């Protein structure tokens, strides 16, 4: 009755060369990177100097999960969980089932290891990226006090936030991105299953529609306010920028070398209010033109904004002092930039019939201060009338690993 | 400052021939149909004998909205709303902005007509399908008592349902399907905006991952229990089956000719419980093997189940008496079949940390009795231990229209 065992491996025959990079054991140079959006790779190597899912071409769908360790979990539980997660993630990202037995190969008398809903689906460029929250390093928990990166602390309060606990924090996080949402959901679901008894889901976020690009060869997408977003992103082909703004060097904690910090913010957008704003005001708030995404100082999308240009029509700066693009721009924030990797979300309607929708902001930064500085600048942002930060979390993202190693083994 | 107006029309240049079919004014034979999954069309004609989005190849994403007319809305409001929705839908499905002025062409001093987040995106096979709920025809509302199809009544109660008002009912519905979720969400958002003051959203459903196929050339997808679903669907290339099981002939209400009934059910799946069931039992509950989707009586996915086959191992029928495939099968239900078009959904986790996930079941039927009969059979389904129906709605779906006509004009 359990005939017809079907393996996801069949898909690998088609893309063997790319997939093989990840299992050679050494660091695959630039493994988790995609400078050429066309053709899009179907398998992203799991092993490498950095974790995949950071500089990887931004996939179309996200399923993000924050976990808390169970109240009785021990240091050994954490260690074994990370080892088990690593094994599973290495398989899943390569289009395999979660174990060798998978959904149908374990025989009739036990629950299948793999939940099966991704059988027959291609790997869809699945990446699985792990991170550790500040609470994981708290005293009297797992003996990791001395392994905490100095900068891994809860984010400070910012103007206009209305944070909810149910969208915030977490001991651990997993970011799963793929070009098919079922593949991303399958990954988180199976990793959650593996965690049973050791860690449990604290909150999750489904995102569709990337709002960022990590390569100029990908077109800049639009957010739910209809504007191009993330034009000034750190691009994955600029090693100098990545070294400056994204990768930790391990001088604080060696285990963080080649890693990064991940800032996650759930930003509700007040869609109906925004939709009643006249075009000129929308553009003044954002500081860009809506059609092309060009700064209001002139040019095209990738023209650098010129904050000194004066508009006679506006009787002041062409790019208003309280516009989003001015306040967020690196030149106004000591040069600070981030690698953004956010997604739009839509979750039905609230009790007033308004859309529950917005931006799930994800940024990878070498130091949380990059985010903190910009976010403080944004206190004056006229966009604040139309957005609310309702969730917040920060995680330290360890560096990549070789085959045979476990994510976070440097913690122990 | 509003330079750089950008039209979605540019995308049309690439697929002009297909798009043109929809604007010739006559019925495009087989317009809303796709018998060849490869290559997948990018533009689906809006006009035709039937509404698109029924026999159309099942797109990858769904955004479904149920609306109630506002308490003060008049018959004229309803009529004008349907006319405005028709105009917008005809444009949106062809990859155009919602009006000729769109997101950037209306000048700086008014809110843009189009919310803009789909600018630059291809049409992605967007279809927009309208339906009318029983409450729209109630006495003392819009004078439509005599236009109500006899069979358009609330569905009866079924075993094991736990229906919630916030996922059920509605005066009107719009099903938007597309291969890019942002395109489907953009459509519903802009149609909701148009409705302001006349109708408001009652509930919505985001679906990803089709769980059905309307053509054998599309592979059968898997539901969140990891099984192939919808194998016995009515296929869009079988005119005889469509005439028997899907299309209304208008003998009851002429305005329903070429239309159908749409049954929507939100079915929560108890994922964690299911995942603890051993493989043999999962297969016995479903009545199919998990790997290939073959019936337990033998063969392959598309082999007809043989309910008379006896299994010595099971000491009874190979396909158990209380299995889902037996109880749902046409031969056990007077031949009744449905055109299913459902989607998986995942909406985070509940207070117990369990997945809020399941199937948003959509079926188009010539008569609601097709659904009612099968659902009554399913009272004995052993799958009921693992699912809960939490939302329910029924709509009459009018036939297709010619260019220049409005959806539902036959009501007035």
How many structural units, i.e. domains of chain A? 1
> How many beta strands in the DSSP annotation of chain A?
11
Largest interface: A-B, 72 and 72 residues
Quaternary assembly: homodimer
Strand content of chain A: 15-25%
What are the low-pLDDT stretches of chain A, counting only 5+ consecutive residues below 50?
Answer: 1-39
Helical content band of chain A: 10-25%
Which shape of chain A, going by the Cα principal axes?
Answer: globular
The largest sheet of chain A is: 9 strands, antiparallel
Distance between the termini of chain A: 45 Å
Question: What report would you give on this structure?
Answer:
- Helix content of chain A is 18%, strand content 19%.
- The first copy, chain A, is α+β, with helices and mostly antiparallel strands and 412 residues long.
- Chain A has one domain.
- In chain A, strands 1, 2, 3, 4, 5, 8, 9, 10 and 11 form a nine-stranded antiparallel sheet that branches. Chain A has a two-stranded antiparallel sheet with strand order 6-7.
- In chain A, helix 2 runs antiparallel to helix 3.
- The N terminus of chain A is likely disordered.
- Chains A and B meet through helix 3, strand 4, helix 6 and strand 9 of A and helix 3, strand 4, helix 6 and strand 9 of B.
């Amino acid at each position: 009755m359990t005939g017809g065992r079907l393996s996801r491996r069949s898909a690998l025959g088609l893309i063997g060369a790319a997939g093989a990079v990840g299992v050679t054991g050494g660091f695959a140079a630039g493994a988790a990177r995609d400078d050429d959006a066309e053709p899009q790779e179907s398998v992203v190597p799991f092993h490498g100097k950095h974790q995949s899912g950071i500089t990887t071409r931004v996939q179309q769908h996200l399923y993000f999960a924050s976990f808390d360790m169970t109240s009785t979990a021990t240091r050994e539980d954490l260690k074994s969980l990370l080892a088990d997660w690593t094994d599973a993630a290495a398989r899943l990202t390569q289009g395999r089932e979660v174990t060798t037995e998978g959904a149908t190969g374990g025989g009739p008398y036990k629950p299948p290891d793999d939940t099966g809903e991704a059988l027959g689906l291609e790997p869809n460029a699945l990446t699985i990226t792990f991170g550790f929250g500040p609470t994981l390093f708290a005293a009297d928990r797992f003996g990791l006090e001395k392994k905490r990166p100095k900068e891994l602390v809860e984010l400070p309060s910012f103007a206009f936030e209305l944070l909810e606990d149910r969208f915030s924090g977490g001991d651990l996080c997993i970011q799963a991105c793929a070009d098919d949402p079922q593949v991303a959901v399958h990954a988180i679901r199976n990793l959650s299953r593996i965690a049973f008894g050791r860690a449990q889901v604290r909150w999750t976020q489904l995102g569709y529609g990337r709002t960022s690009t990590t390569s100029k060869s990908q077109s800049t997408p639009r957010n739910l306010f209809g504007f191009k977003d993330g034009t000034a992103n750190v691009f994955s082909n600029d090693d100098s920028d990545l070294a400056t703004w994204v990768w930790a060097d391990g001088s604080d904690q060696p285990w963080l070398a080649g890693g990064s910090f991940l800032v996650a913010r759930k930003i509700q957008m007040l869609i109906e209010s925004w939709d009643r704003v006249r075009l000129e005001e929308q553009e003044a708030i954002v500081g860009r033109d809506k059609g092309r995404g060009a700064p209001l100082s002139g040019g095209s999308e990738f023209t650098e904004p010129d904050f000194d240009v004066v508009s006679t029509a506006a009787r002041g700066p062409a790019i208003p002092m309280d516009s989003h693009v001015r306040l967020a721009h690196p030149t106004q924030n000591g040069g600070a930039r981030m690698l953004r990797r956010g997604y739009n979300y839509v979750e039905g309607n609230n009790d007033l019939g308004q859309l529950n929708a917005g931006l799930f902001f994800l940024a990878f930064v070498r130091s949380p201060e990059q985010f903190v500085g910009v976010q403080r600048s944004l206190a004056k942002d006229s966009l604040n009338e139309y957005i609310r930060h309702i969730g917040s979390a920060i995680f330290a993202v360890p560096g990549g690993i070789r085959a045979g190693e476990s994510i976070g083994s440097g913690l122990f």
